[in-house]
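mind reviewing these tokens:
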Amino acid sequence: MANQPSPFATPIIGPQYCAPGPHPVDLIITKERTIGENFTVTDINGNIVFTVQSNIVSIVSPRRDLFIFDANGNPIVHLRKALLSNNSWKAFRGRSTELRDLIFIRERSSLFQLRMKLNVFLANNTTEVCDFKVKATWFGHSWDVYIGESDTVVAQINKKLGTIFSREKYMVTVSPNIDYAFIMALIVTLET
């Protein structure tokens, strides 16, 4: 996967997040020890690429919302979990929740699953065929992201469990020309 050129070179979040080939983008996503679901995303040199902040779910605000910020603190994606669905998320540009700012919808491929499979539909998709698919391994600690129903892997995610002294981390490899902000947005919704 690492050095395969991607046939899908369309930016989803933005063209600045599509690294040209031939080398993949490697990211480390660290789950912070906070009350909410907060993450820090760095490159392999330790430079902050993104931060993710969540709201605190309560009776007053029962929805789960995650906000992705670029390295300069600008909001780039608002992820919102569906209120009545167990595992469906919508992604919007910036802090918006307007339909015109919808980027993608991520949902389970079926109600009952032995291992997690998620379908991702981009906002301009008018078919019932997903644009991307996320599949977990049998033990659920790593995932592959595929283009639609193909066998073309565009990202690989491996979860490293934390200890009492360390935090959970996700090691991510994204193929060249694939929007790594989009892949990162998928990852932070996997277990939240």
Notes: The chain has one helix and twelve strands. The first strand starts at residue 25 and ends at 31.
